[in-house]
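Quick one, probably user error.
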C-alpha cells in the first residue's frame, strides 16, 4: 500500500510540475509579447523622431534659402548692370559659386518661358496679346525656385492671351 501512495504522490508531483511549467511558459510568453510590443513602440518612436528631425532640417533649410533669395536677385541684377567687364565677371563668379553650393543641396530654378502657366509654379503678373496658346509663359519677370520638390518662391511671369480667342 505504501507503494500505491508513493506512486500516487509521484503522479501528483509530476502533475504539479507540469502545471507549474505550463504557468511559467505562459508567463514567459506574455513577457516575450510585452518585449516585442515595447520594441515595436520604440522603433515607431525612433522613426517618428527621425521624421520630425528631417522635417525640422527641411524647414530650416527652406527659411535659409528664402533669406538668400534677395541676395541672389541682387547679384543677378548687378551682373546685368555692371559698369565694366571686370565687375560683371566678379558678380557672375560670386553668383555662380553661391548657386553651385545651393544646387548641391537641392535648389533648382523653375523653368517657365515657353511652358503653360501652372499656378503651382507661377504667379501671373501680366497677360499680353499673342499668337501663342493662352497661358503660355512669354517672359519671366522674377525667377522662381524649388528646394528639392517644394516651391520656395513662385516665378512671376507674363503670359500670352491668344488673339484668336479675343476675336471670337
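Nope, works fine. Designed sequence:
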Amino acid at each position: 500500500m505504501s507503494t500505491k501512495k508513493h506512486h500516487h504522490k509521484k503522479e501528483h508531483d509530476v502533475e504539479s510540475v507540469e502545471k507549474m511549467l505550463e504557468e511559467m511558459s505562459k508567463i514567459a510568453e506574455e513577457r516575450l509579447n510585452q518585449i516585442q510590443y515595447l520594441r515595436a513602440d520604440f522603433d515607431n518612436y525612433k522613426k517618428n523622431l527621425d521624421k520630425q528631425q528631417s522635417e525640422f532640417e527641411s524647414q530650416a533649410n527652406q527659411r535659409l534659402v528664402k533669406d538668400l533669395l534677395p541676395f541672389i536677385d541682387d547679384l543677378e541684377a548687378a551682373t546685368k548692370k555692371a559698369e565694366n567687364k571686370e565687375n560683371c565677371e566678379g558678380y557672375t563668379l560670386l553668383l555662380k559659386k553661391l548657386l553651385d553650393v545651393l544646387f548641391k543641396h537641392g535648389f533648382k530654378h523653375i523653368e517657365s518661358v515657353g511652358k503653360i502657366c501652372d499656378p503651382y509654379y507661377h504667379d501671373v503678373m501680366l497677360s499680353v496679346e499673342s499668337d501663342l496658346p493662352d497661358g503660355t509663359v512669354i517672359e519671366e519677370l522674377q525667377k522662381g525656385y524649388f528646394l528639392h520638390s517644394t516651391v520656395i518662391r513662385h516665378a512671376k511671369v507674363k503670359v500670352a492671351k491668344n488673339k484668336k480667342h479675343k476675336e471670337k
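The domain at 109-168 is CATH 2.30.22.10 (Nucleotide Exchange Factor Grpe; Chain A, domain 2).
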